[in-house]
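Ticket #4471: complex job returned nothing on first submit. Input attached below:
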Amino acid sequence: MAQSEATSNTTPQNAPTLASMSGGEARESKRPGVWGTIRKQRLAMIGLVIVLFFALLAFIGPSLAPHGATEQFPQVRLQSPSRDYPFGTDEFGRDIFSRILYGARISFQVGMIVVGIAGTVGVLLGIMAGYRGGWTDNIIVLLSDVIFAFPAVLLAIAVITMLGNNLTNAILAISLVYIPPFIRIVRGATLTVRNTAFVEAAQSIGASAPRIMGRHIFPNITAPLIVQASISFGFAILSEAGLSFLGLGNKAPDPSWGTMVSGSYGYLQLAWWGAVIPGIAIALTVLGFQLLGDGLRDALDPKLRR
Amino acid sequence: MGRYLIRRMLLLIPVLFGVSLLVFALIHAIPGDITNFVIGTDTRISEEQRELVKKSYGLDQPLPVQYAKWMGHVLQGDLGTSFRTRRDIWDELSLRLPVTAQLAVMAAAFAILLAIPIGVLAAIKRNSRIDYAATIGTLIGISLPNFLLATILVLIFSYHLKWLPPIGYVPFREDPVGNLKVMLMPSVSLALPLTAVLMRYTRSAVLEALSHDHVRVARAKGLAGRTVMSRHVLRNASIPIITVVGIQFATLLGGTVIIETIFGLPGIGRYIYESISTRDYPVVQGVTLVMATIFVLISLVVDILYAFMDPRLRHR
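Support reply: We reran it on our side without changes. The output follows.
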């Protein structure tokens, strides 16, 4: 398919390795493992710390929250950050700090489910397209091109309109949008593995196609998959924030970070913290996954090791 | 080259067909009686009246027939009429398209003017402070939601400095300066992700081009640094950069939904957002199709440009 050829050409082979230039660079002779390579990169380590911190918040955050997520204190509306309310209060007198803690769990769920669904579907279709080739390949690539033809936000909005406006459907919509990149990456990686000697050997002893795809191809394409998963995790959170900012997906009193920004946007002049602090929480989390993804790319892709 | 172009253009047909099918399927898979959205759920409306409404919209016919009819109209430039306002969708679109087009072009211009020089500089002075700063800037730009940047800009330039209006729109023809004033913050917010991605790709494309042997040869034979840069490095680097601009344009179009809603601009993004919240399905169907088609056409143009600029593709 011409388009996919052209587009895959466009991704430079040595994709930018932002993390690699930050810390010490791994020496080829020492052959450090994945962990060793990551540990030497300052930016990747920062990313890992952010991601771990975020995951921890998602699990134990709500139990640390001093107040309930939707608990209102009408006498302290729009209060600036103070000792009692570290991030201030919003237009209903809700504690923004507590809401951020609860919101972390929502964002984490979004990232997990989106990467789970888009990754699984993308791996199945991508391996099939790459391994079988021919018509299977053409149809899967066309399908992925069609989905890719929609601006992501727009497709997600259309799907939410169809399925109904709630968080579950928003997650499904975002998952659909994130399938094509997974298909592309997995398909590309499968194409490079397909003609190796060990796959030919498996074919010659009569291994079935599903067995070859599962046992011989899949384990050899995990590196680009993990990188893609990390980056998609962050972007899925960003997408959900954008949708809930528009009032799509998450329902109003629930503290999705995007909902918090849009809810407080109207009170920007009186209380900037209501909109800005949840926005920064989104940006930091996405940044963490970006940094980690870049670091993993450097660590897992031996071609990029310098 | 000719064959490549023809193949690439022919590929448009299945993609656009698939796009239209998906749009149609999305709208028609909506559960519930579609007439509820046209005339409401009032129980005084009899079954016969509902049937009449269905008939007038052609909703009583089998889905394939409905699809064929819809496509027939669309191909003649007729996108139908809005449920809500009863106005022609194409007329509405042509009023709003210029707003979104101006927004997208301004955003792309900001992104290109900022990202390419910095990206080139970062690559030339690799591992310098400039490079490091550009890297950090890129990462922040990719991670920052555009509505957060919009929020911060409004906070500073509208509420604190009171230089720019936080919301509203003035057509360029009525007041060019006022128009640029209202479009400034929206286009900067919209430009953010494109700028970040473009900077990143420019840097790596220039680094890649610098590493080629012919650059070393050009240097070795004593060509001036400036000539080597413009003729051998930037020319090679420009190919992937153009492609990234093209691909990222889709993200830009999608971003207009949020940005136009924040700043109250009467563009396509806000139009579709409003249609969705009022469940105006013909509009959602028509506008989604138009936006997807615009994007598919842009990626076609990018691929063709790519083919023209890359001599290796020209001989295919």
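Chain A is about 70% helix and 0% strand. Closing as resolved unless it happens again.
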